[in-house]
Design brief:
Blueprint: H1 2-13, H2 18-26, H3 37-50, H4 55-67, H5 78-96, H6 101-111, H7 117-133, H8 135-148, H9 151-160, H10 170-189, H11 198-217, H12 219-230, H13 235-245, H14 254-264
Helix pairs in contact: 1-2, 1-3, 2-5, 3-5, 4-5, 5-6, 5-7, 6-7, 7-8, 7-9, 8-9, 8-10, 9-10, 9-11, 10-11, 10-12, 11-12, 11-13, 12-14
Length: 265
């Protein structure tokens, strides 16, 4: 299968893109519960390795996959998977090619607002590749989204840093804590009548797990942030805290979780 993909990708780099697109659709596993992320990762790696010999071909193909004008895109479909591949590959390639990062940041900022949840997940994965390659610049972009973005862009910011291997980097870990604080502070200021919006609900569900990922990596700072949030006495923030306290990753911090649950009672 890898050899087939490699051959189709080589053809796509010369402008014959439809066979690759059909292959991605046929092997997307959509509709279904789980998209073929292994295939999306293979596409990303192959494209990144092709940059040195065909940079313009790679850029054109990335644009085709991520921004193609398709009328048949809908949730949980092969067409959505093609876009997902383009988004993830854009992050992987920009991680390898520094002068592509500015354009990729713009693409991800836009795609974070996609109506399709798998595309939004692809945005988070793309940011994670960029965090590995250039933590400082990527954290700056994510901070901009957290401070000035809409609900879905804020969601991208907190989801991107909720990846345990990235949090071994002390700068990323501190940035992740900062992003959680910024977005949680925004949540408490949203007027009650606006909290029914789907974008807000999506952000809230994401915060329901991201805070525990970061707290597991920095328990002292994470639980301190949780205790501060509990003092706000905000219904939605309290829901977020309870969801995180239920996560198995925090089970070993029983005294901290019990204390917080008492504060929320």
């Amino acid at each position: 299968m890898y050899d087939t993909l490699s051959s189709l990708l080589e053809r796509a780099l010369t402008g014959n893109r439809r066979p690759l697109e059909f292959y991605l659709r046929d092997n997307s596993r959509l509709p279904g519960a789980r998209a073929n992320l292994e295939l999306a990762n293979d596409v990303s790696c192959l494209l990144a390795s092709a940059i040195t010999r065909s940079p313009e071909g790679v850029r054109a193909l990335l644009n085709y996959l991520a921004n193609g004008n398709r009328q048949d895109i809908a949730s949980n479909t092969p067409a959505e998977f093609v876009v997902l591949c383009g988004i993830i590959a854009s992050g992987t390639c920009a991680a390898a090619q520094s002068d592509w990062r500015e354009g990729t940041f713009s693409l991800l900022e836009y795609s974070a607002c996609s109506a399709f949840w798998r595309v939004r997940e692809g945005v988070a994965i793309a940011y994670q590749h960029l965090l590995s390659a250039d933590p400082q610049a990527t954290l700056e972009q994510l901070t901009d989204l957290a401070v000035e973005g809409n609900y879905l862009q804020q969601r991208a910011a907190v989801a991107a840093v909720a990846e345990p291997p990235l949090l071994y980097n002390a700068d990323v870990l501190m940035g992740a804590l900062h992003l959680q604080r910024i977005v949680l502070s925004h949540v408490r200021t949203v007027p009650l009548q606006d909290r029914r919006a789907e974008g807000f609900r999506t952000l809230k569900r994401t915060l329901g797990y991201t805070l525990s990922v970061v707290t597991a990596a920095a328990p002292d700072e994470g639980f301190a942030l949780m205790r501060e949030c509990a003092s706000w006495n905000d219904h939605d923030v309290n829901w977020i805290l309870r969801e995180n306290l239920r996560k198995k990753r925090l089970a070993k911090f029983s005294s901290d979780t019990e204390h917080l649950l008492n504060l929320l009672a």
